[in-house]
Amino acid sequence: MHEQAISHPAQVPGLMGDSGIRKVIFASSLGTLFEWYDFYLYGSLAVFFGGQFFPAQNPTAQLLASLATFGAGFAVRPLGALVFGHIGDLIGRKYTFLVTMATMGLATALVGLLPTYASIGIWATIILVLLRLMQGLALGGEYGGAATYVAEHVPDERRGYYTSFIQTTATLGFFASMAIIGLTRWYMGEDGFKGAGSGIAGWRIPFLFSFLLLAVSMYIRMKLKESPLFTKLKTEGKISKNPLKESFTNPVNLRYVLLALFGATAGQGVVWYTGQFYALTFLLAVLKLHWLPAYLIISVALLLGAPFFLVFGHMSDKIGRKKVMLWGCLLAALTYVPIYMGMRAATPALVGGAKAVMLTAIPFPNLVALIALVFVQIVYVTMVYGPIAAFLVELFPTNIRYTSMSLPYHIGNGWFGGFLPLVATALATSVVAREAFGANAIYAGLLYPIAIALLTVVVGAFFIKETRDHKIDTAIRKNASVQEIFDWVAVLAALAIGFVLLLQWSSDFLPDLAAGKGFLTAFWNNVWYPLVGAMALWALPTLFFRLEFDRLRAIGMVLACQALTALFTFKLYQAWVAQGGTWKFFAFTLVIVIYSLVLAGGYAFGRKRLESA
Length: 613
Known about the structure:
By secondary structure, this protein is mainly alpha-helical.
């Protein structure tokens, strides 16, 4: 990708002084805040919605179904990023996020008018999922537009600080959703909120409130002008004719998309959703807190933590985006387990036949401790999220920036992060976790964010260059070497090798079907695990080895690392697995740790040989 440089942003017509920048930030941030409010209303009520829109089952199944629908909105966010990112790079940033805002506001408000499962049966579930998908599509286009719009108005040396205002909107939108839900529940009471009496059910009011927010947001954003950098490109006839093609068929740009995903947004996504959504789910579903103390704990922690988005955004202007984000991922991975153990220790046990721990049952020091433990997680969120917008806009050229930055952001947040409550809850309630950890199985869900955060630390540290000093009106890369070209053949070959080998360990698909275990259970046990394992253990290492070595050498080095790991761990692995319980988990962890060390050593050795050749 060799975009012709245009002038420095300070010299582009249309850029403004501090008062103009404040207006742009306010309008963009307020609109984005309202969109996040709409999107997270469902998340704030995920536990409650289990009994409203899903068939009567056991509570765990209802919770998982509700969280899966919550995740459905995240599943389509990358599609929204592609659709609206493409439009934004073709016709402009402003008009694109007007469309995304209208779509989001209407989809959210219609949830407030949707009949429950008790009224129209399965159609309630279907319509809810469709509205959730509309929300996901809209949000997929919103964030990239707002971040790009602000970044293209501000000076290079303060981009981290100014774009961090956009980053506050996700947390403030989440806070606003909880605040309005909490006030409605408090005012109407539990029966009124659930709709047990006459009149409108209280849970509908926060959704219907979106009609008002939509009107205000549209009015404010209609007054904005187009981004000056995009306007200049349009005037000079340099707008991309096909942003999707230029973003994802150009092998050099595709490399940066993948590095942005695995080296930044995946870790950022899981840290974000652990610190806010999983913390709330853990308080409500695992620790059995009443909604009032749970909302109070999260809300106070969010208010205390929100200013740190600006702190770390400003810090990234001084020391770099990469350092701040990777330290946030590393600290989160190292401390999540003790933090959640502390949350459990600070929560009083249920007494007698009580169904929830009420606010009055929590001693004040314990309440402060719970707020502090969630606050620490929010600080991690601000570290990884504050600089991310500046990092992404600096990574891609102006003519395809909206499209290129939106996809890795929404895969990282929408897939790795958005499905975190579902994946973590499923892990914590699985038979394997209960057998391995017993009463401590409630912490098994943390394995997922810890693993993804560590992956981001490794990829970001080895492969991503600092972007702080880059001027966004020029291309960040001028001379792409052959090693920078992304190679699908090598990755798919490694994936196939790994899948075939791992499938030999899970070859009971047809016998499981014959035994009446059901297709989904048989597929999950015998196909899904090998596929995920092949991606993680073969395809992903090959992807990054291929960035430095030719195809055959990359595949060969990964296979050699696999063989060395098996040699080092085979006997000990078998002995520990035979012990059962927690020892099986330790055996698997041992293999992963040794394999990671062997990969790191092999990569370093290979690079040294390459440099000396």
